[in-house]
Amino acid sequence: MDSKISGTMPPTYEQVLVYFLQKGISADEARDFYLFYNGRNWLSRRGNLYKSWKTIAHCWIVSVLTSQP
Questions:
Q1: What are the sequence ranges of the domains in the chain?
Q2: What are phi and psi of 32, to 5 degrees?
Q3: Best label site of 7, 8, 63, 64, fewest CB within 10 Å?
Q4: What long-range pairs does 30-35 form, CB within 8 A, spacing at least 24?
Q5: How confident is the model over 11-49, as pLDDT tens digits?
Q6: What is the pTM (predicted TM-score) of this model?
């Protein structure tokens, strides 16, 4: 596994950016994702630290792709 985009928590912005770009998602969307979850300290609504940022990034990306016309 490439250590630059590992699933360890919390990720750096650069890790998120590389992951999103590899998935064909814009840098702006990567920034929005990072700022949103970083602002929440990578905690779920229940206050638990997410185990893998890639899991929530995947859900974010699916949401973006399904909301596009």
A1: 9-67
A2: -60, -45
A3: 63
A4: 33/57, 33/60
A5: 999 999 999 999 999 999 999 999 999 999 999 999 999
A6: 0.86
